[in-house]
Design goal:
Helix content is about 35%, strand content about 20%. It has about 525 residues and is α/β, with parallel strands linked by helices. The protein has 3 domains: about 5-200, Rossmann fold (3-Layer(aba) Sandwich), CATH 3.40.50.1380; about 245-360, 3-Layer(aba) Sandwich (Cytidine Deaminase, domain 2); about 390-510, AICAR transformylase, duplication domain (Cytidine Deaminase, domain 2, 3-Layer(aba) Sandwich). The strands form 5 sheets. Strands 8-13-12-11-9-10 form a 6-stranded mixed sheet, with helices on both faces. A 6-stranded mixed sheet has the order 16-21-20-19-17-18, with helices on both faces. It has a 5-stranded parallel sheet with strand order 3-2-1-4-5, sandwiched between helices. Helix 8 (about 130-140) runs antiparallel to helix 11 (about 175-200) and helix 18 (about 440-455) runs parallel beside helix 19 (about 470-480). The longest helix has 26 residues, at about 175-200.
């Protein structure tokens, strides 16, 4: 059997390829390559470099569509090193064993996203040899090291091989568990790639009825609770949100930071004027809009100062130093904004425990669908992206909302879609003053919202995510000082609800759209 190491390299992503190639050259590893990768390595003046065709004695055919598909290549990858029959067969054809496969695939996804790409150009980005090499080497991970992500080059770069002529030395360098992990990531790499191709070719494919394909970003410290494991995946199919942002400062993002932060960014993107939201456990405990950012923050904070402690804050405009000054002495876990003035960022970075996320040039966009798992299965549904037309709303009472009340009704209806059911909001001057959420009945939610609002409930407007099943909701709203109500309507007792609202001089608007959020 031929001595020395052999590495097969074929990559579309050439990040740090120069570093790993120089390393392999240093340890006397023969590099086998072809196509664009070979040309790149030639330009680096890498020694011990051979074309695949030199190894197989077979030229590429079909304009390069067939390069590596050859028994000598795949025998060298797949041979079981402890199987005498395998070793004998390899010796009889070439004596070549391949110890390392470094491969990632044609840029199908990039080509697919390019609006100028033709169908034929997209088809040509369907890699054949690459996935085959990756699968073969990952299957034989006991003997072959498989690397698909340039970030994993450090496994080799950070280690020194003492015996450059001993194949066993590299096997000792990378543990079997590391090899197994890399093999798993290799199969995930191919699986994601194949899913993209399948969805492109399948004309009957409906995204709302398929599991999304995703790339593993990292393992989180833990999930919702310390005893739960969690892994973060990114999927281009699921819109843009907090995962696409840039962390400028602070500790690693936790599961709860990501979930709450995404909700915060989603909400502020729904408003045009300066808007601030404070999120606690995926609910907006504070939300306000204003012509002035400082005022928007102050109104959001005043909505529920107790709940705001340790919350997540998001803004839809560049954060100013003046707004940061108004936040002095208040502990927040995370701040999100599309940008930060230099002075604002400088002041915020002095807070050791604060995470700072920049969403510059990243507008929130909803995923087309949501996935809910349960014992025995899962449900995929369209996301609730319906933007209700104000023109379709109906004032169903003789009492009509004033112009100022109608502004608050608009604001409240935008906000209520983000509140967990049964959801009740009290709003005044385009700010949440009271929130009742997650209760088994709407009366409880109104009572909680009223307690939070206190005196601010007087002359407020009330939004409900679903219809009032009984008129007692209107009676309680009247008792806490509500002047106008917005709700979907649709109860069998709508007439009773409307009659009582008229009797109590409360205006009521029906939207004919429900926004449950469980």
């Amino acid at each position: 059997m031929k001595s020395g190491f052999n590495a097969l390299i074929s990559v579309a992503d050439k990040s740090n390829l120069d570093k790993i190639a120089k390393y392999l050259e240093k340890i006397n590893c023969t590099i086998i390559s072809t196509g664009g990768t070979y040309d790149y390595l030639i330009d680096l003046n890498i020694s011990n470099l051979k074309r695949v065709s030199e190894i197989t004695n077979s030229d590429e055919i079909l304009d390069g569509r067939v390069k590596t598909l050859h028994p000598i290549i795949y025998g060298g990858i797949l041979a079981k090193r402890d199987n005498k029959k395998h070793m004998s067969e390899i010796e009889s054809i070439s004596g070549l064993l391949i110890d390392i496969v470094i491969c990632n695939l044609y840029p199908f996804e990039k080509t697919l996203k390019d609006p100028s790409s033709t169908h034929q150009e997209i088809i040509e980005m369907i890699d054949i040899g690459g996935p085959t090499m990756i699968r073969a080497s990952a299957k034989n991970y006991d003997s072959v090291l498989t690397i698909v992500d340039p970030k994993d080059y450090d496994l080799l770069l950070n280690n020194e091989i003492k015996d450059h002529n001993s194949r066993s030395s590299i096997n000792k360098l990378i543990t079997i568990e590391q090899r197994k992990n890399l093999a798993s990531r290799a199969f995930q790499h191919v699986s994601y790639y194949d899913t993209l191709i399948y969805k492109y070719l399948n004309n009957n494919s409906l995204k709302t009825h398929e599991l999304p394909s995703g790339k593993l970003v990292k393992k989180l410290r833990y999930g919702e609770n310390p005893h739960q494991k969690a892994h973060l995946f990114q999927s281009e199919e699921l819109g843009n949100g907090i995962i696409n942002g840039n962390q400028l400062h602070g500790k690693e993002m936790s599961y709860n930071n990501i979930i709450d932060g995404n909700t915060a960014w989603q909400i502020v993107n729904d408003f045009n004027k300066n808007t601030c939201v404070i999120i606690k456990h995926a609910n907006p405990c504070g939300l306000a809009t204003s012509d002035d950012q400082v005022q928007a923050f102050q109104n959001a904070f005043d909505g529920d100062q107790v709940s705001a402690y340790g919350g997540i804050v998001a803004f839809n405009k560049t954060l100013t130093e003046e707004t940061v000054n108004s936040m002095k002495g208040i502990f927040f876990e995370l701040i999100i904004a599309p940008g930060y003035s230099d002075k604002a960022l400088e002041r915020l970075q002095k807070r050791k425990d604060l995470r700072i996320i920049s969403m510059e040039n990243i507008k929130y966009s909803d995923p087309e669908f949501e996935l809910k798992t349960f014992a025995g299965g899962y449900i995929i549904q369209d996301s609730d992206t319906k933007r209700d037309s104000i023109d379709a709303w109906r004032t169903v009472t003789d009492t009509k909302p004033s112009q100022e009340e109608f502004k608050d009704l608009e604001f409240a209806w935008k906000a209520i879609r983000y509140v967990k059911s049964n959801g009740i909001l009290l709003v005044k001057n385009q700010s949440i003053v009271g929130l009742g959420t997650g209760q088994p009945n709407r009366i409880n939610s109104i009572e909680i919202a009223s307690k939070v609002a206190g005196d601010k409930a007087s002359r407020s407007i009330l939004a409900s995510d679903a219809f009032f099943p009984f008129a007692d909701n209107v009676q309680l709203a009247y008792e806490i000082g509500v002047k106008s109500i917005i709700q979907p309507g649709g109860s069998i007792r709508d007439d009773e609800v409307i009659q009582l609202a008229d009797k109590l001089n409360i205006s009521m608007v029906f939207t004919d759209t429900r926004h449950f959020k469980h």
